[in-house]
Amino acid sequence: MNMRISKVLVIIAVGIFLLGIPYFVTSPYVMHIIIFSGIYIIFALSYDIVVGYLGMLSLGHPAFYGVGGYTSVLLVMKLDVPYVIALPIAGILALIVALIVGFPALRLSYHSFAIVTLAFTLIMRAVWINWVSLTNGPMGIPGVPRPTIDIPFLGAIHIETLTDYYYFILILVIITCLFIYFMIHSRVGRALLSIRENEVLAETLGVNAFKYRMIAFAIGAFFAGLAGSFTAHYITFMGPEFTDFYYITMLLIMVILGGSGTIHGVIIGAIAFTFIPEYLRITPEFRDVIYGIVLLITIIFMPEGIGGKINEIIYKRRVKTG
Amino acid sequence: MRLLETIDLTKNFFGLTALDKVNLHVNRGEIVGLIGPNGSGKTTLFNCATGVLPITGGRIKFRGDDITGLPTHEIALKGLSRTFQIIRIFPKMTVMENMLLSVQQHQGERILSSIFRTPRIRRLEKEGRERALRLLEFVNIDHLKDSLAGNLSFGQHKLLEFIMALMPDPEIVLLDEPAAAVNPTMIKKMMDHILQLNKEGYTFFIIEHNMDVVMELCTRVVVLNYGEKIAEGKPEEIKNNDDVIEAYFGT
To answer: Which tens digit of pLDDT belongs to each residue from A306-315?
Structure first.
């Protein structure tokens, strides 16, 4: 009972802290990084479904981010679709593309899958750069409108200030976290884990490994699409650099150093590795060196990532006291 | 009634014939033993029957339906369970999770209702838990239900794998060497479990090297040698069959 009360208190405290952030963070720059942390939490958590829970190295994730971004930007700008509708469509289209790519790719072995998804990212990039009439090519689409959320009977909410964006991304992060938490702790999560641990046995017990891979890959793409859509409407620009390989390295750092397969670890990883590179701007000369050292130290002392380390500490304490 | 049947089942590995036109069947309610010297194709036959390995020729029938070429999970859902020669469980999941996973796909899968835990899914999980507890009690490892499966002893692994195969209430259970590498007490326990379950109506198809086990358990025995069926019959007949003796000891 005590445990439950303290749990509730912790949740309330964290809730108040999260709601209060715009009131005690005065620097717009820090606020901007916080909002980007939120985007990367969604992006990294969705990537972790594939890398951590499915155990497949996908290099196609930035492409889904891009699909989401272009979809909602084009819907809003060319077809005047309201953002509340464009946002879920961005996710759903990313999901459909993932099903199409996954159908052949998820039948392949680990390494071939990585290469095929990499090829997919490069192809999407080529399409966005060359389909100038639709995407404005390498110049990208500037002037993406800020989101307006129409609520029936209550009027429209215009997302304009950093504070608005903060609350908006907070809601998206919470939805993502809850969905992924429920998924991982459901039968679906159990089936996914079983496939990662021993596919032959999972199949023998009736788990359709290919189907579950498709589901996980598609759900990962859905949330990447949402993150892409939010990003485009936040920075009010959409361009092919969304699929830059830089995002892959960044996602891998966040997921692996954060602790793949742990939700809290990936969240911490996403926040830490959004902030660290920003703060290292104070020493432009040593920035990359220090960043490299931070990565090395993390992987040496926490080979299972931050989340893995936290689990280990909690487990040890439990063994000691219980 | 023929539950499982192979018709001219053939399997080649890169020109090497592992199974050569094997015809055999298991009737409902039987305990059929599959024996033969090492490398005679016993485990290959199990792998072909469960769809883990694609077959080269012939047909496999289950309850009269042709299941040749079906993926492993579909065959499993039709009511064919198995265990492995080298124990396979999920070491990073708890014993209970191992058990629940073994039955969940058989209860039908609805992705979204699973994620959002609809009342139906909750009821099914509860039923699964109850059945799992009964089986864990049956083999006396219910006190370990919340341990990580990887922390169990070898004998307990073997029992867990055995009851995982029973979780979905299968039509037939294929056991690959249930008595291998376990101590005599454990062998006795395993045999009692199999006999009791057989009385309750379960059908077994067993690969086993321990002849005492085969002689005591099996109602019928099939002998493989170099991928060919060389004998079939009651345990006593097999014991005195010249071909079988030659296959095992040479002449």
So the answer is: 888 888 888 7
Domain boundary among B107, B139, B167: B167
**Mean pLDDT, chain A, whole residue set:** 89
**pLDDT tens per residue across span A119-145:** 999 999 999 999 988 888 888 888 888
The beta-carbon neighbor of B90 closest among A186, A198, A208 is A198
Cβ pair B89:A215 closer than 8 A: no
Amino acid A54 reads L
**Closest CA of chain A from B164, distance in Å:** 8
Residues B151 and B41 grouped into a single domain: no
Instruction: Report the SS3 class of residue A178.
Output: helix
- CB-nearest to B76 from A179, A191, A206 is A206
Q: Are B156 and B175 part of one and the same domain? A: no
Determine the residue of chain B that is closest to A196 in CA distance: B90
CB atoms within 10 A of CB A18: 14
Secondary structure of residue A95 in the 3-state scheme = helix
Q: Which domain holds residue B133?
A: 90-167
B66 and B189 fall within a common domain? yes
Task: Collect all residues of chain B within an 8 Å Cβ-Cβ radius of residue A197.
Answer: 90-93
Here the ipTM equals: 0.89
Return the axis-axis angle of helices A187-197 and A162-184, rounded to nearest 10°. Answer: 70
Q: Among B72, B115, B116, whose Cβ lies nearest the Cβ of A204?
A: B72
Q: Which helix (H) or strand (E) holds B46?
A: helix B42-49
